[in-house]
Write a structure and sequence with these properties.
Blueprint (H helix, E strand, L loop, with lengths): L19 H13 L4 H17 L3 H15 L7 H17 L3 H19 L4 H16 L3 H17 L3 H17 L3 H15 L7 H17 L5 H12 L8 E3 L13 H13 L6 E8 L5 E9 L4 H12 L2 E2 L11 E10 L2 E3 L7 E3 L4 E6 L17
Antiparallel strand pairs: 1-4, 2-3, 2-5, 5-8, 6-7
Amino acid sequence: MAAPAYAASDDTIVVTAKSLKQTAADLAACLARNCPPDQDVKATLAHAENQFVAGDYKNARTTLLKSVARNRKHGDAYPIPVSDLMRGNARVAAHLGEGSNFQSSTIASRDILRKGFGANDAKALVGDIEVGDMRAKLGYPDEAERIYKGVGERAAAANLPWIVSATEIRQAMLKLASELPTDQKEGRDRLVRLSQGTDPAYRGTRIAAKILLARSDRKAGRDDSTTKALLAEYAAAGGTQTPTLLFAAPIKQAEAPRGGAGEGRTQTTQLATKSFDGQWFDIGFWITPDGHTSEIEVIRKSGADNLFVKPVIDSIQSRVYAPLKREPGDPGVYAVERYSMTSLWVDDNTGTRIRMRSPVPRIERMDLTPDQIVETPKSAGTTG
């Protein structure tokens, strides 16, 4: 099967056929004519996204930071574009291990929406959820849970059931991810309760809870009847138009080998001192109509170490999706995902405040799957 071309990233990135050279020219022309802030932000995001997809993370971040310097003061007049700009900057910062900027930009994105629309507006509440997601991602689950709970209460008071659903699902996920058996049981009990709700306004919550229950049960090695029931439910409905992930084995972090003590120390030292700059790769694969993955391959990569690549491929291989609603003979959906190997920048503990990389590696993922096929080239990319 031929792999379609792509030029997109996560849900904020629009598929585009424009080249990196063209988006650079578009941004330069916009600035030359002193374009309005919303147009500046649009051109900035298009170019930074192209730079990111090309693997030029540092210049993508430079493009974004320059635009932040130009446009942050316009947040009152253009709250949505400027909030989007801060969100885009946060996401690139995360892939570079810039934890502090990831945090400050996510909060700034939320604060702009609060000021522009009010703290209890749906857009601002979603911004609050993103702050909770950020705190969870940085390793503060208790704080994230507190944020989700508060947002859920405010959303309920504002009659925004879909936001309430998002917070309840996230709270259950945090409990499931805990190492405490009591928390795990509480998380599963919450999902069971949410999956059995009857309020039509919470239909999305029921579906999400069923999916998470299926994933949790398979991960825990329980009987896979939950997954089978969910697959049967989707099949009876004729499948889904877009891929819905039901299960994926977690990506196993690289570990030191179990050989002699010296061998293990060598491996750990290699991970601790490895440069995480430019460590990324793109995985392409088909999601078949029956909900499995096939033809998984690295279609582009920088200098990413195979130590990181194989666990990602193994995880994608394990995925189970809901059946797709497709005509006979349709191959399914071609997906592309970017994985960045990074670690957070931290201050050393000697009092010099010199920045250094944490020895703990992190895997950042971004969806590059296009909403539409731009073209079908000879190759979707080269490895090198």
